[in-house]
Fold these 2 entries.
Entry 1:
Amino acid sequence: MLVVMKSSASVEMVDAVVKAVADMGLKAHPIPGANRTAIGITGNKAQVNDSQLRALAGVEDLVHVTAPYKLVGRDFHPQSSEVVIDDVVIGGKEIVLMGGPCSVEPLEITLEIAKAVKNAGGKVFRGGAFKPRTSPYSFQGLGEEGLKILAQVRQETGLKIITEAIDPENLKLVAEYTDIIQIGARNMQNFSLLKAAGKSDKAVMIKRGMSSTVDELLMAAEYVLAGGNERVILCERGVRTFAAHTRNTLDLSAIPYVKARSHLPIIADPSHGTGVREMVAALSRASIAVGADGLILETHIQPDKALSDAFQTITTEEFSSVAKESAEIAHIMGRKL
Amino acid sequence: MLVVMKSSASVEMVDAVVKAVADMGLKAHPIPGANRTAIGITGNKAQVNDSQLRALAGVEDLVHVTAPYKLVGRDFHPQSSEVVIDDVVIGGKEIVLMGGPCSVEPLEITLEIAKAVKNAGGKVFRGGAFKPRTSPYSFQGLGEEGLKILAQVRQETGLKIITEAIDPENLKLVAEYTDIIQIGARNMQNFSLLKAAGKSDKAVMIKRGMSSTVDELLMAAEYVLAGGNERVILCERGVRTFAAHTRNTLDLSAIPYVKARSHLPIIADPSHGTGVREMVAALSRASIAVGADGLILETHIQPDKALSDAFQTITTEEFSSVAKESAEIAHIMGRKL
Amino acid sequence: MLVVMKSSASVEMVDAVVKAVADMGLKAHPIPGANRTAIGITGNKAQVNDSQLRALAGVEDLVHVTAPYKLVGRDFHPQSSEVVIDDVVIGGKEIVLMGGPCSVEPLEITLEIAKAVKNAGGKVFRGGAFKPRTSPYSFQGLGEEGLKILAQVRQETGLKIITEAIDPENLKLVAEYTDIIQIGARNMQNFSLLKAAGKSDKAVMIKRGMSSTVDELLMAAEYVLAGGNERVILCERGVRTFAAHTRNTLDLSAIPYVKARSHLPIIADPSHGTGVREMVAALSRASIAVGADGLILETHIQPDKALSDAFQTITTEEFSSVAKESAEIAHIMGRKL
Amino acid sequence: MLVVMKSSASVEMVDAVVKAVADMGLKAHPIPGANRTAIGITGNKAQVNDSQLRALAGVEDLVHVTAPYKLVGRDFHPQSSEVVIDDVVIGGKEIVLMGGPCSVEPLEITLEIAKAVKNAGGKVFRGGAFKPRTSPYSFQGLGEEGLKILAQVRQETGLKIITEAIDPENLKLVAEYTDIIQIGARNMQNFSLLKAAGKSDKAVMIKRGMSSTVDELLMAAEYVLAGGNERVILCERGVRTFAAHTRNTLDLSAIPYVKARSHLPIIADPSHGTGVREMVAALSRASIAVGADGLILETHIQPDKALSDAFQTITTEEFSSVAKESAEIAHIMGRKL
């Protein structure tokens, strides 16, 4: 770490920082500059806890050299991880498509969507049974009834299931039915939920929070790995910006960034990432081209009748078309679908 | 609500929207424009659920006329609410100061800070016992031991206590000890937690999420009121932007906006709102001047020794000085402290 | 347009709006709602100037139904435009690659880069002669000497030239040498410059401002078309967000959005869009896959020696590799390169 | 400066950086860390040009210790500057109020507004003669006719004049009539315009760009001072964020930040900073309380009839009320109005 002193910092202030560093069992290396001093710190095994140093008189800024994550990073785990769920492998050579309605629909409709997803080459079926909604008056999902419908989809189609858990207690229930537990964007820093996911034996997919940096996403994953669960998938789903033409701004640069720093697989969600049905296909192609390990898409046999998110849900025919285009781009990337 | 059709929308598409509106039991009023048609919708008692309309062919955009909240709004509750905790009233004529360390410190130190807060005119003591931290390796708070220290502070000083609850199970424990349950910024859309808070008999303070709109903050409060708990305080604590000179951008315009639309009290948090100790006093003055009902500040007898957030924690002497300046500005505003 | 009244608006306030609309020669259609009234406006040929209506008592919000642009929109110009510069066509079936150094380098180096760009399949050579720099002490470009070097590149390689103009006077000079005048991101709302570009007989490329909405980008182009110059190319180059892992956030959804609303061609700039050399290839692939009509990339034979932007400049070998990958993706898209 | 190497960087890569630093005539200080190396750089008189270093193999990040500005900074100019225009002093003990319509109105109306501004205690009259507008079809201001009206206002009232210049040629014309040349937010990084302002003998006010950091605002001012014009005033006018309840987010923390780092005066613009008439008074109070040297406000005798920005323009009665409240808060701050 580097401590940058103010230009007005006195020799005594610099000495106080050096002493504070020594008190932490670390070594300080003062570097006098043109009009201010910086102090390098060495000897730390993990990131230095900077709160106390930052508060010392004369300190202008602190700069971390060591990344704050270790279990999710490539430094000590250089090869890419694959998250394996029976015959489905996420993070390997194959691109994995996940699809389904925003909310779990009644059984018959849900099954029909699932069959279309499977026919198009999808491997994982998505559908929310417990829905985090901005308004208490909006439809909150079918609850456990929805989980049972998902279980039946798995039984009848062989598709793996991904569905969201919304609190630690709820996660136990969800884990009984699902193959992958989804941690939603609004819960990306719900640390109680992340800790519960860390103790689960089910795979976990963490969506990037709508104003989270990619490093914060990696730290959220670090919570799950630190809890003992190494089967974590990340998901870029768009961030909140001033842009008005989409619901969120899909930040595709997050994918090569994660790939360079972490061994975990990462997929993209162009449905939430745009919030606009007409843009989903284009951003799906872009996601595969940028290096995503898969896609998660909202699809429905009749989007206009969907229980929620109808405006960003594509038809199952469009899902099938996205699958074909993705396969072609995957091929160029030396991958397959 | 208004449905804006695309300029390319056919007569059939417009008719389909009119029919869909009628199927919802509402009335549609087509308004033909120069190069496109808009359709007004009336007859709705609450905000129209727009997901299905948005998905219809030819629909360009939807515009809500009715606000999505009702219990927190002034439409049906024009007079301002006061949240009363024994002799402390938040949202009344008096400005309420809350202060204390980021994390609860050992008893002796905590008590000493609390006495300084009280002497400066503070009415509520803050301190985190359960801390949501970006890193699993950061100090996570003293836990229930911290709650016991807070209870002792109340007993010895008479100050009311505010401390954060981090999940529904944890909220029950926190509620046993505290006077005000804090819902942190990262949990503003943790709906399980909001629902649990709605069933509590303790007052609740909700901090604005770091990328939440003010309307989303009001909707979070709507969850608590809809659950039966009307004693809700809002808190502006800064949002995440591109600005680099502060940790967050304190959005003081949120305060007059909330005051105009909601009857709930709202306070400001210049400590998190800037993340810079040197700016806390200036933004505290501005918060009172803009109309906040109070301040919540991180303060410590020795900030450099604080267990967390040292860099944004002011000394108890500075806290006292902020209290004096706030009192003077409150006086101008026709309020007192 | 729709005028949304406050729920507290009186009948007199509604009447005053209706009268104001009539005074503008337009027709008002009041739509009484559950707890407030909306007023539809028809009869306008262009977007209604809303400033005065917004200011009337009782007005909560205004909603435009008519898009603010007309010359750049598809409403009256449904087929896509091609910007033709001799044998180079931008916006047609072919993907166009533009490449070159950030700043024009000395002649020998510049020529060597240009030959590599041409060999890789590039059609347009980029290089800044006049550089807008945040610091007055940074290198500001070679000036007219740089323009002469660019002219020599054209003569020796046959590549078309794109270079930036920074003010109306400067634009006249730049137009003497270049084939395409670039309006940089910082000047996207420099309306004097846009007006000057509208009077030029050279093609113009406008980069999206770093905090501009896509509609504002379209309005900037509207200035140039309204001035009489129809040969306009748009460029998505990333916007400013809170994200810390890239210099800008490349907003690829802008491309399908523009394609749906405007007939103008649009290309992508992954060099500025990421600011990170290692990410340029991945985001280039994604840009083609999302539907861009071309790419503009910073490339150099020795990036480490570049006069500016070295950290986001790829080698000419990498440029060649991007060209190959782009050609493969273009093929899937039914295009070629 | 500090160069942070990647954990995978080889000894040779570190050596190459050390050599590159030496080639720049500076001194490198390698600091080996737990799992990567950092290299401190000393000997630089100004900020190190980092473009080439950033591009070297194995470099993860660069951290500047020296601030990029010098003329506007307090390091070499510790006392605050006052911008003096005859008897009006900006940046001194007195708070300066500037007011007037968005656009210059016809003479009679303009004069009436100006008299009200003067009666309320205003010292400077604002009004745009040349208006940068998003749409080419919006009213662009009265042009030179507007400047003549402003000159007449000065003659009849004694108020100083501030009005915007929009390009270098236009600046010469504007400078003939005005006392303070305004550089608008959209032109904050129009460096040709800043250079022209640097050569003017008139005072200059620079508004923060809507997505500019405060350091970029200071660098814009550095251009003007480097050109020879030391009479520069800064203005915080709100930045663009995701927030939807205001037109811009007024970032009041910019004011104490600038005060701590720069000797230049800084004022606030709550009219553009909120874009909502009802919020202007509250944010004006907050601006004075946070330490601004003045306010610039849009005011009109009949806001509903204003030629532009009617929705954020306050009445002259409201302006007078803001002046009274500001005077009271100024008094608390040890200032006057």
Note: Chain D has two domains: 2-63, 83-332.
Entry 2:
Amino acid sequence: MSNKIYFTVGPTELYPVIKKFYNSAINRKIFSISHRSKEFSDIFQATVKNLKKLLSIPEDFYIFFFSSATECMERIIQNLVIDKSFHYINGFFAQRFYDISTKLNKSPEKIYSSYGEGTNFKNLILPERTELICIVLNETSTGVALNFDDIKKLKIKYPEILLSLDIVTAVPYYKIDYEYVDSAFFSVQKGFGMPPGLGVLILNEKCIKKAEILNKKGISIGSYNNFLNWKENFLKNQTTVTPNIPAIYILGKICEYLLENGYKKISEETDKKSELIYNYFNNHKFIKPFVQNKYYRSKTTIVLETKINSEKIVNILSNQGFVLSRGYSIYKEKHIRIGNFPMHTVEDTKNLIEKFKLIKLK
Amino acid sequence: MSNKIYFTVGPTELYPVIKKFYNSAINRKIFSISHRSKEFSDIFQATVKNLKKLLSIPEDFYIFFFSSATECMERIIQNLVIDKSFHYINGFFAQRFYDISTKLNKSPEKIYSSYGEGTNFKNLILPERTELICIVLNETSTGVALNFDDIKKLKIKYPEILLSLDIVTAVPYYKIDYEYVDSAFFSVQKGFGMPPGLGVLILNEKCIKKAEILNKKGISIGSYNNFLNWKENFLKNQTTVTPNIPAIYILGKICEYLLENGYKKISEETDKKSELIYNYFNNHKFIKPFVQNKYYRSKTTIVLETKINSEKIVNILSNQGFVLSRGYSIYKEKHIRIGNFPMHTVEDTKNLIEKFKLIKLK
């Protein structure tokens, strides 16, 4: 039995109800059913319905299930890009999206912001022949959250160019207006408090049409998981292959659970907890928020810069029952990252801050 | 609470210990750990070690984790085939492997056997420039199991050509000599009695070398899940992206559990149960084994041809607590398929046969 609380950026703490969902599913033998059965189609339909309701996804959008957010990136590039994707890069996950386009022999272009900074896209002029704009809404590696209204204005400026939004650590807290997004994706081990193993892609008919164009041109859009095969299965409330049934089932149950509690609670508590954390570290001696501009500070993944090696601090807190993430890649030793998701309570957040106060360095 | 027993070909009945494994993992917060942590590497290493021991996989083989057996097929074609794969097709899963090669813009070739039949490969002459031979050891769609010794002789005849073996419903019962196989793959919702969501690829260094050749030629071998990226992560006991941690953890525990009980028990019981089933249906009035030649009859997925619509029979048995699979694709109404995996007991198999005896048709 572990008494630790995972304040990590994902995988993170599970919702306590998850255990009940697993046991109930096993007792009802839900993990033994055929993915081509009526029983599974009912589960698929319930999950899609609850997810659309929770995230305000329009009725005519498709939901495809993949194995990770990274698979979503690969399938997006494969199906939506003949040649040129365009990437705004201000962290390692945006960079990964760009790298995938390169590895699939496309010709991506990019602009950078310094890591820890954001942009409002006001001065952005897209290169000629850009087919897809790729943006990460909330960069888990740096703690920068872009403002959705700025992204919306970019889409209004370029209505004909498809826009793909990485919303991995953003949802369910950050609201997205899907009128201005053609595809968006997340994985469930962040704000949905589930074990990892499922990537969820939300997309509109324009994406299907683009995949059809590639397919007709003889460009490979992948095999079993291409968008055309997925659409056909989605319309039957089915998946392309035997999927991660536990994850699809539990995602539906978690959405139902979050809907019962209401978005207002998620929103208010996330605001409150992030305020507690930022307020404390704004005045800390050797740990400061990494993102300088408050406009871009993420409320769900809080990245702190520490003058003491992060390993030391993370170990002290872990021994006291609070698990945090260290920095990403080159920031491993310099950063501490705190996940602020709906399953993290205000009480535990206060306790975490109290533990920080007690850290004594020799 | 369901009292039904799933004698389906997969997803199928779970091992009863699975529930304990989930609860223990949740209590220990294993599904919250980082996939880059020492804790996860230990789990990864234990699963690989137990799996290699159970399936007698040589020490120098790699184990890569994907999301399904179908993903394994796609990654194999992507990484091992410049132009020409060769497929022996005697069922729908072998056909799927071929179709994937086509969809990835390769130029696969094929030979067919009538569905329900097998081959010993004695007269097979491979086309010029074949790079990869693709064979399904146990065709879940038709109930045909090839003989591994026949595959071995084919490999001895063509030692330079890579051989990829679909062992999805074959393991852990059917033994494979990995000296004669370059890559093999399975999914866990069959003989491993787990919920679906994990594909396991077993491969040797020759496959890595081939992926290197493709990569150097500028042929896309996929992005995050290509074999070169996977090898690099495997050597650190890590995965390429945040994986299905529950599945990797539970696979290791199931292998440990099967090792404790010993392969002899799996082997003897599978033989006994398949004998009980085939013996009974050899003399049945309107249900007969689909595979005529006993040499090719699968012991793990038993396919029966019925003169009465399969729906009727499957429904009668389901109402009595025994869930069976109907036929695959065009055989949906004409076939019944019975899974015979290690978690199915001799006692339950006898009970299932007794229920068949009671079926009265008006």
Note: Chain A touches chain B through 60 residues (CB under 8 Å).
